[in-house]
Amino acid sequence: MTIKDTREYTRRSFLAKTAALGVASALPFSLTACGGSEGVSGAARAAASVAQPDGLTLTAFIDGEAVSRAEVLTWEARRLQVVAKRMSNNLPAAIMADLEALILRPALSTANIAQEREQLADAKLLAGDEQMQALVAGDLLLSDQASELAAMPGQWAVSQIEIESSLGTAEGFADWFSRALARDDERAMLVACPDHYLIRSQGTQGQNVIEETGGALVVSHFVVDYTKPADLPYAIDPEFPVRLTGPAMNEAGTQIGGVCHQFRNLEQGFRLRPAVFFPATLPFWTISEHRWHLACEFENWVTAYVREMGLEG
After folding, report:
1. CA distance 96 to 150
2. Spatial distance between the Cα atoms of 276 and 160, rounded to a whole number of angstroms
3. For residue range 271-293, what is the model confidence (pLDDT) as tens digits?
4. Which of 13, 106, 272, 307 is deepest in the core (most CB within 10 A)?
């Protein structure tokens, strides 16, 4: 390592430690044991009771198997625990929780998950973009280089699921999502999944994203542009006429993946088919675990869309 590299590493380490302290001070005490005890307060019970709009049923399909909303919420509870530990300046505990979530998949309570989800998003916003980015600076240094190497062969693997919503329309949801991007609604983007560390709009129809993708175990940074074509093997289905597609680029401007989210209306409600392209050289569990990430974020986005548009039954 050169003197310049050593100085840069030292600077990043200092920023990360400083950011961790700042982020930890923004994190509510109640989140240090998120996914834990049942109903610690009346406020928590009230938050949980409004977690699902009336008349809304969400069913995900992962590997062709129906997955209940409860199963997706349990996955989210595990990820809440991981991110809360990292933001509490307890990286060893976060790493252990990450491995447990990936391998052991413990059953955690979801009684307070609506409140915990909101509190975690509040803490990220209070900490600010600069501190959140510095918090994961070490991860980004590793993942930026790894993504460049992984994408070199130009072969892609797809992480894809389907979700059925009993309320809303394909056009309505796509419009809601596009408007959230256009107005840079960072909170709507962050609250959808615990693994979102920073999501800001890039132009009017793009996303600057810092997140842990599926079972990657490290946080990565990329930019998705929904207005540009991508050199990816999209499987466009004419029965899903509403689409959001675009390449994902790393810091160096290299295409490291992309998205192809497709939607269609049903007799009642609509069906989503979100898909993310990864370099095929990545470990298989990265692709398979990201399906749960997609289920979490899109079910939460659909819930927000239904509630904000007043579509509740």
Report:
1. 25
2. 6
3. 999 999 999 999 999 999 999 99
4. 272
Instruction: Return the closest-CA partner of residue 167 out of 261, 57, 59.
Output: 57
Tokens of 202: 């890039």
Calculate the CA 231 to chain-centre distance: 23
- Please spell the DSSP secondary structure of 37-67, one letter per residue: SS--SHHHHHHHHTSS-TT--EEEEETTEEE
Tokens coding 266: 């049903």
196-232 residue pLDDT tens: 999 999 988 999 999 999 889 999 999 999 999 999 9
pTM: 0.89
Q: Is the dihedral of CA 197, 211, 219, 139 positive or negative?
A: negative
Q: Is the pLDDT of residue 100 over 80?
A: yes
Residue 32: how many other CB atoms lie within 10 Å: 16
CA angle 70, 299, 160 (to 5 degrees): 100
**Distance of alpha carbon 96 from alpha carbon 57, whole angstroms:** 33
CB 184 within 8 A of CB 207: no
Cβ–Cβ < 8 Å for 97, 105: no
What's the pLDDT score for residue 30?
A: 67
Place of tokens 């982020």: 23
End-to-end CA distance of the chain: 61
